[in-house]
Specification:
α4 (about 140-170) packs across α16. The protein is an alpha+beta fold and about 425 residues long. The protein is elongated. β3 (about 35) and β4 form a beta hairpin. It is about 50% helix and about 10% strand. It is built from 17 helices and nine strands. Strands 1, 2, 3, 4, 5, 6 and 7 form a seven-stranded mixed sheet that branches.
Length: about 425
């Protein structure tokens, strides 16, 4: 058993509220179980109870055993001085305050319905991937649908928090924030951190001034990623070197140390050279990118915005000094999906939130019009009968796995609590 089960039992009053008594035999009445806190300090804040004839208002602490109070060193922490009731599964030791008065204790193990305990034990029994994998298809579709909406919102809230922090760094310049987010996601998992460093090292006013020349943008992006160091026979390489040196001097860009870009095990279309060239062309061809992305009515409009190819040199090269067969190298549909899901949707949510607007329904509809993602996590869900029909559902399932299943937060999950009641 884990403490989160006792938190669930106490929070939702899954025990009889009549005929209760403390371990010392005093009658106990519970009026308010308190506010559930997910931070350091007591588990529940501002509860209201009556012990004997005395009414109390204060905090509740929950443990599996009474002696855990001392094991967790609460007797040395002033944050626990306001605890009015110690709720435990098993009472194995008296607990005293600093003034040597005993803290009243409620032992729960004799008050829990056997069926609830069996359901909990069945839920947390170790299985191959997630605890409830065999029961997923038994969940009421209405419960699952509502939970997916909540999961999607939590995912957006978390991502938007990071975006708004970035906005503070850029003193409200939304275009600069968008550039950083796009750069990071154009680099994918392999080169995303290095692309972000590159983007953060170029003041966005420089991008605004130089976006009219594709050679200038490529020189900035390749140069800041340290791809223009050394000497090569390639004429275009030399041209970019000269332009980059000029721009660094013009805009007083100080040298930076970006982590080396990775080519190993990447398909050529995902080489960092190609992704940087595509990002440069996007900012060259779309001077109103921020406004257009924020106000795009549907996924088709966003696909149109992202439909750019590389400059002529990169249509015949994947790397400097190495020619390859001609290819226009547009952004693929699957890559644009990743950009929409990981950049455009969180960015638009954060932007709307900052403006005091509600964009959730619009963004949900946008994702519901897109194909679901494909990865090993979603493949696992499919084998257990939960197959996403669109990108909204695939994003919700990823949040479920990463934020709840992987962290064993079953009793904070609508699926877990539904199975407990079944």
């Amino acid at each position: 058993m884990k403490e989160d089960f006792l938190h669930y039992v106490w929070r939702y009053k899954k025990f009889p509220l009549t005929g209760l008594a403390t371990t010392s035999g005093e009658t106990l009445e519970i009026f308010n179980t308190g506010q559930y806190l997910r931070r350091s300090g007591p588990d529940f804040f501002n509860a209201q109870i009556i012990i004997g004839t005395q009414r109390w208002a204060g905090n509740i602490e929950i443990h599996l055993k009474s002696s855990d109070w001392y094991l967790h060193h609460h007797h040395h922490d002033a944050a626990y001085d306001g605890v009015i009731l110690h709720v435990v599964w098993q009472h194995d030791a008296a607990i005293f305050r600093k003034d040597n008065t005993e803290i009243p204790t409620l032992e729960l193990r004799h008050h829990i319905a056997p069926t609830l305990l069996r359901n909990y034990e069945s839920l947390i029994h170790p299985k191959s991937w997630i605890y409830c994998e065999k029961e997923l298809t038994s969940i009421d579709p209405f419960i699952l649908g509502n939970w997916m909406e909540r999961l999607f919102l939590e995912r957006l809230e978390r991502k938007s928090g990071a975006i708004l922090q970035l906005l503070d760094r850029y003193t409200g310049d939304w275009e600069a924030v968008l550039f950083c987010l796009l750069a990071k996601n154009f680099g994918l998992n392999t080169n995303g951190a290095a692309f972000l460093e590159m983007a953060e090292s170029i003041p966005f006013p420089v991008i605004r001034k130089e976006r009219f020349e594709i050679t200038a943008l490529e020189a900035l992006f390749f140069g800041r990623c340290n791809l223009l160091a050394g000497k090569k026979q390639d004429q275009y390489f030399g041209e970019l070197q000269s332009v980059f040196d000029y721009l660094c001097d013009k805009h007083r860009l100080v040298p930076i140390a970006v982590e080396p870009l990775q080519f190993f095990r990447l398909r050529p279309d995902n080489f960092p050279t190609i992704r940087l060239a595509q990002l440069a062309m996007l900012y060259h061809k779309k001077p109103h990118l921020f406004t257009d992305l924020v106000h795009a009515a549907d996924s088709s409009a966003i696909y149109d915005l992202l439909q750019v190819q590389v400059s002529p040199y990169w249509q015949e090269h994947y790397q400097f000094d190495r020619e390859s067969p001609f290819k226009r190298r547009y952004l693929s549909r699957s890559f644009m999906d990743l950009i929409i899901i990981n950049t455009v949707i969180p960015f638009r949510f954060a932007y709307a939130k900052k403006q005091g607007a509600d964009a959730l329904e619009i963004l949900m509809a946008l994702l519901q019009s897109m194909a679901p993602e494909s990865n090993s996590i979603l493949d696992h869900f499919s084998t257990f009968g939960i197959k996403p029909k669109n990108a909204f559902e695939s994003q919700s399932l990823l949040e479920l796995k990463q934020a709840f299943c992987d962290k064993s937060r079953c009793l904070e999950c609508a699926i877990g609590t539904a199975l407990l009641k079944s």
